[in-house]
Description:
The structure is a single chain. With 371 residues, the chain is mostly helical. It has 19 helices and 4 strands. The chain has helices spanning 2-10, 29-40, 53-59, 62-66, 82-89, 97-108, 125-128, 148-160, 177-183, 188-200, 205-218, 223-233, 239-250, 263-270, 275-280, 289-292, 318-333, 336-350, 361-370, and strands at residues 45-48, 70-73, 112-113, 116-117. β3 (112-113) and β4 form a beta hairpin. α11 (205-218) crosses α13 and α11 (205-218) packs across α17 (318-333).
Amino acid sequence: MRHFAADLKARGINVIYRAYNAPDNQGSLFGEVQRAVAQLTPEALIITAPGEFRLLDAMQNWEHELGIPVSILEDDHFLASRNDFANWANGRKQLRMEHFYREMRKKHSVLMESDGPTGSQWNFDVENRRAPPTNLHVPAPYSADPDTITQQVMELIETEFPDHFGDLAPFPYAVTRPGAQEALASRAPIDACMRSLIETGWITFRMRAMLVSFASYQLWLDWRKTAPYMGRLFTDYEPGIHYSQFQMQSGVTGINALRGYNPIKQSRDQDPSGMFIRKWVPELDHLPNETIHVPYASETPLFRPRFNTNYPPPIVDHKVAARWAKTQISEVKKTASFRTRSQSVNQRHGSRKRARAKPDNANHGKQLKLL
């Protein structure tokens, strides 16, 4: 909430935010609302229905207690309203989550095909109850570093609620809308670059580096397979430049720093209004500037795989995949054999101490004469 309040203030919206440990905190939500009504004297109060029955029951008495009209709006963060669930449950002898789950998938076209559920099964409960294979690779979940505000809240909880259940640290969760968008990031900038390259045969150096980074780190593809494919697309393909740059951007030279590009950050920094994406990924042209870089995290419900477009959902978590790839490469760089090869590469390709052969001025002059 502190992040949300700060974001609203930055947009020029008047916000009254009362911190839990503020000296004048009234100690209850109604107490704060009552004080705000007394200070601002509004004609009416509009609030969002809470998810807690006790609080909703109390809010239904606020109009009488505050002496002004109070409107309680449905919370649209959920795919189903209270009335939707009540209508579904009416007359049923059993209330099973499985049945409600199927109805919601049908209604909102979630993992559905024209002839039934995607994969021809509603669930994989039986399979999921079995022990996973011992060699199963489970990618690390998305994680974000707590910023200053989050750290302050964590310290507050530790001070005020020392007997809280669970652990505060580590706290890898996204707590802002941009953070959530990063976690749900799409491949829109990558698709735009590839479509442009295939059509025109050329893109900028930054775009090339980002494509190689995405293929090598986020998708963990072998650069020896992606380099020839990309080379066939470039009209200015030159092997000596192409392969050395490909190796460097893939982090396999042994003498260069690992260079990972975040496609979403690059897209936002270099093309804030999304003009490049709108041109090459026209199915996203209807999205506003703030969401076109991350269309799957747009204003429509996040659980809709296509949110009224033909564009697919994200195939990988950028940050998690890149972090995992860099960890794998870093482990290799710790080995003795790597250091030996790295020194050899640096001596041959990176050293500036080797004597360079002097140009043959005589032959050079003869060549000029021939021209």
